[in-house]
Amino acid sequence: MTDPQQPSATDRSDAGDRSDAGDVEQHACPKCDAQPGSPCRSRGGAVASAYHTRRFTMVPRLKKALRVPTPADRGPGRPWRPGTPPPAPINPDLPSADIRIGYARCSTLGQELDSQLDALSKHGIPRDKIFSEKISTRVRVRPRFEEALRTAREVKAHAPHCRVIFTVYEMKRLGRDAAELTALADHLTAHGLVLAVPSSCRW
Question: Tell me, what's the pLDDT at 9?
């Protein structure tokens, strides 16, 4: 009987395909001109079922491979679209630093934001890097929240060697339930951002 906690042979194979794909897609393809971050393209304009030989043999460990299949998450057979270029390598000699972006929120116009703003300022965040608004979490789009996230992403993109910390005084300022907070945490992680909540931890 198969141990449900052990990865199956199929799972291991899929993980291997994704690992190979990540290494192959660091290079442009000399045959189909697919750029780094994109799968290979067939003559018919679809995602190829496998990477072209001249491309995958640029990866030293795959030089003797006969075939490197395109993993399922790249959509083999579907119309080809350019992928996301891999991030440029970070120069280890660049100085690193923490860059903090703050967010403060209360639900109604009658509530005050000063205590949150003061707390964030005490943690070294300049006022011009703190985005605040008076709006309920029931509102789907919170303009200043979205602006804070966008700013954090842009800072990280321009300074990938720095740790960009999205800071909010209390977790409840971000969302109403666990699912919403989990989705936000996943979004921050995907963009290389760090979440800090000074009221619940020391940093």
Answer: 46
Of the candidates 175, 149, 179, 178, the one whose C-alpha atom is nearest the C-alpha of residue 164 is 149
What distance in Å separates the CA atoms of residue 29 and residue 55, rounded to the nearest whole number?
Answer: 5
Instruction: Fill in the DSSP letter of residue 128.
Output: G
What pTM did the predictor assign?
A: 0.52
Range 98-196: architecture per CATH:
3-Layer(aba) Sandwich (3.40)
CA 171 to chain centre: 20
Domain boundaries, the chain: 9-74, 98-196
96-154 pLDDT, tens per residue?
A: 678 999 999 998 888 999 999 999 998 889 999 999 999 988 887 899 999 999 999 99
Q: Classify residue 50 as exposed, middle or buried by CB count within 10 Å of its CB (0-12, 13-18, 19+).
A: middle
Q: At 85, give phi and psi (nearest 5°).
A: -60, 140
- Would you say 132 and 143 are in contact if contact means Cβ atoms under 8 Å apart? no
Contacts of 9 (CB under 8 A, 6+ apart): none
Distance of alpha carbon 182 from alpha carbon 176, whole angstroms: 11
Query: Which residue from 73, 54, 74 is spatially nearest to 65, judged by alpha carbons?
Result: 54
Q: How many whole angstroms separate alpha carbon 134 and alpha carbon 28?
A: 48
